[in-house]
Specification:
Strand order of the largest sheet: 4-6-7
Structural class: mainly alpha
Largest sheet: 3 strands, antiparallel
Strand content: 5-15%
Number of strands: 9
């Protein structure tokens, strides 16, 4: 049996590339041994407070509006257990496996920062669940992203105390049975341990990270589909001249223009039409560096925020063992994640919107110079006419979904938690948006390949004729597309082709590793690999 590779998590230093690997699974997670000293010191601080009968919020008091209620020492274990059970009120579908893997990993990292006062055994248990691929069933709805992702994290904590449910080899089983499958026994939670498990932004952050990784994939696919469209309509490469973009100075724009030049290097198509009479291409072609560059800048900003949050101590109160203090604050408030998720949503909406406009351009013979709707014998055949309608529908849907979630706040807990982030929903909606964009750019790429092949594939009964090749990188993508979908000689059932091209846009979920280096190098979670 082949042993799995080990990923050592270093609290405060876990990279985006490592987080992407953790979400995918297929490896063994281990905690940096240097974290043990901080964990032990924080736990000793909590034990001293209990032993000295000091009154400290979260250790021997009630929670939220009940913070002024003191709890007797002989009921502290009951307090922590009741906290977990009472907060397990999530609803909706279970979070996807990649998200849950990241929740386990980032919760372990957060606790291992040494500010939560928990036993090292709890951190070990979280990693043991991830390593055994025993994944707590966490309902997707029920968190407002303030005071931590309380309800969803409670469902995770339930499994650790032998309650709730988890997936073992894809089958949902009771929490106690799931623990046994990972070689664990139910925990009796000590002072503050239940609160430490529930407080934190790990669910919001994991959802946003998985959304970011998907956004990276559709960003790369959107650049490729844009290059394919450029070649299909015999557009101009002059707008990608490095001097234009250096004159403006926006880093994302410069990077995108450079990536497009690299993708087109060696193409025979561009030099073939110097006197075609076309003065300027529409903005959806000419301004790809400006639009997609702005998207890239925003994705990189969101990536920085989310990497910081994934490494953060977002529990409350926090233990500072060097001074023996336990200080109540608000690191559980997920406003940074909410803003980052909104930024990713805006980028996703724009990646899809400009792709849909290029698709419409391809189908318009007056603008593209290609056969109407990219099919021979149009009229009898509708070609890609209605595929564009699908893309337009998804573009409109994403424009609605891109409405900021972070500005939506409702008070909870008798106005104790009077401003909340709504980061959890803001991050959760990214999954659907990524899927929509993957369909849109997949349709565009399929249509652009059709436009290129209309000159290459002879009509039935016609002789072969010479044709020009694009660049090696573009030709490789054309070949990959043709492995998934055939040339459209006449109308056929297109829904399976659209689904196949969605897989092309997402690289079947395998992320940035399979993108050409010219693209992968600009993606935040790949550049840090």
């Amino acid at each position: 049996m082949t042993s799995l590779p080990t990923l050592v998590l270093r609290p405060g230093q876990v990279s985006l590339a490592e987080l992407r690997r953790a979400s995918a699974g297929g490896l063994r997670l281990a905690m940096d041994p240097e974290a043990l000293q901080g964990l032990a010191a924080a736990q000793a601080t909590v034990d001293r407070i209990v032993r000295e009968d000091q009154v400290v919020y979260g250790i021997n008091t009630g929670f939220g509006k009940l913070a002024s209620t003191r709890i007797a020492g002989d009921r502290l274990a009951e307090l922590q257990r009741n906290l977990v059970l009472s907060h397990s009120v999530g609803t909706g579908e279970a979070l996807p496996d990649p998200v849950v893997r990241l929740v386990l990993a980032t919760k372990a990292v957060s606790l291992a920062r040494g500010h939560s006062g928990v036993r090292p055994a709890l951190v070990d248990a979280l990693l043991a669940l991830a390593n055994a691929d025993v994944l707590p069933v966490i309902p997707a709805q029920g968190s407002v992203g303030a005071s931590g992702d309380l309800a969803p994290l409670a469902h995770l904590a339930c499994v650790l105390i032998g309650e709730g449910q988890a997936k073992v080899q894809g089958r949902v089983v009771p929490g106690r049975q799931a623990l046994a499958a990972a070689g664990l026994q139910p925990f009796v939670l000590g002072p503050k341990e239940g609160l430490a498990l529930l407080n934190g932004t790990q669910v919001s952050t994991a959802l946003a990270l998985v959304g970011l990784f998907g956004a990276e994939s559709v960003f790369a696919a959107g650049l490729l589909s844009g290059v394919l469209t450029l070649e299909a309509i015999k557009g101009s490469v002059k707008p990608f001249d490095a001097r234009i973009h250096a004159a403006r100075g926006q880093p994302g724009q410069i990077a995108v223009a450079a990536a497009m030049r690299a993708l087109l290097e060696g193409s025979e198509i561009d030099p073939s039409h110097p006197h075609c009479g076309r003065v300027q291409d529409p903005y959806s072609i000419r301004c790809v560096p400006q639009v997609m560059g702005a998207c890239l800048d925003n994705l990189q900003h969101a990536a920085r925020v989310l990497r910081t949050e994934a490494n953060a101590a977002s529990d409350n109160p926090l233990v500072f063992a060097d001074t023996g203090e336990v200080i109540s604050g608000g690191n559980f408030h997920a406003e940074p994640v909410a803003f980052a998720a909104d930024i990713v949503a805006l980028a996703l909406a724009e990646i899809g919107a400009i792709s849909e406009r290029r698709l419409a351009l391809l189908l318009d013979t007056a603008l593209s110079g290609l056969p109407a709707f990219l099919v021979r014998d149009s009229g009898v055949n509708s070609g890609f006419m209605i595929a564009q309608v699908t893309a337009a529908a998804l573009a409109a849907e994403n424009q609605c979904l891109a409405t900021p979630s972070s500005v939506t706040s409702l008070p909870t807990s008798a106005n104790q938690e009077d401003h909340v982030s709504m980061a959890t929903y803001g991050a959760r909606r990214l999954g659907g948006m990524v899927r929509n964009v993957a369909v849109m750019v997949g349709i565009e790429a399929m249509a652009a390949a059709q436009g290129i092949d209309l000159e290459r594939v002879p009509a039935p009964g016609s002789a072969h004729r010479p044709w020009l090749r694009s660049s090696p990188l573009v030709e490789a993508e054309l070949a990959a597309i043709r492995q998934r979908v055939a040339f459209l000689e006449q109308d056929r059932y297109l829904a399976p082709d659209i689904e196949a091209m969605r897989g092309w846009a997402l690289r079947d979920g395998e992320g940035a590793a399979q993108w050409p280096a010219a693209l992968a190098g600009v993606l935040p979670s790949h550049a840090q690999a």
